[in-house]
Every structure is written in C-alpha cells, then in structure tokens.
Design goal:
Length: 98
C-alpha cells in the first residue's frame, strides 16, 4: 500500500535499484525501468541515509545538523526530494507504527 510521505513516514531505498558514488555525487539506476538518476552531494548524503529504513524526521535531523540549515527549510526540501524519488520508483515508504 502506498502512503503519502510525512515526517513520520519510514523510507528506504527500493530493491529495484543499484547506485554508486561518483566523486561525492550519486548515480542511481532504476533496474525496473532502466532509467538513470543523479543526485548532487547533499542528495547523495540523503541517499546514503536511505540505505537503511529511517523516519523522515530522523533524516531531516541528520541533514540539518550536518549542513547547518533550519529544520523547517530542511524538512520542506527533503519532502520534495523524497516525493521525486518515490515517483521515480527509487524508494519505498511506509507509515510508522504507532
């Protein structure tokens, strides 16, 4: 079942992809569609965090502390990126169990 992404969602990289580091950036191949994607260094850091299931707010906290950005701004940008990764089939999303 698909879920809308919120800060309580748990996200993880899809099994239908392979990725590698390219000089601090990330190159990702969706093996189901055959489409390649690229992420800048901040996106690559987020991608590294997505290799294990994590809550969106946990990723937000890590990124905000490492890049000295306000939590609200970080949360907005992170949700936009995660929505794009979900639309591309590169991540899986689940609701956090209460």
């Amino acid at each position: 079942m698909a879920y809308a992404i919120s800060e309580q969602s748990v996200v993880v990289a899809s099994k239908d992809q392979v990725s590698c580091d390219l000089a601090g950036e990330a190159a990702i191949l969706n093996t189901a569609s055959g489409v390649y994607y690229g992420l800048d260094p901040i996106g690559a850091r987020i991608w590294a965090l997505l290799q294990q299931p994590r809550s969106v707010h946990e990723i937000r906290d890590v990124v905000a502390s490492e890049y000295d950005v306000e939590l609200e701004h970080c949360a907005r940008d992170l949700l936009v990126l995660l929505e794009k990764l979900l639309a591309a089939g590169l991540i899986e999303v689940s609701a956090r169990d209460a």
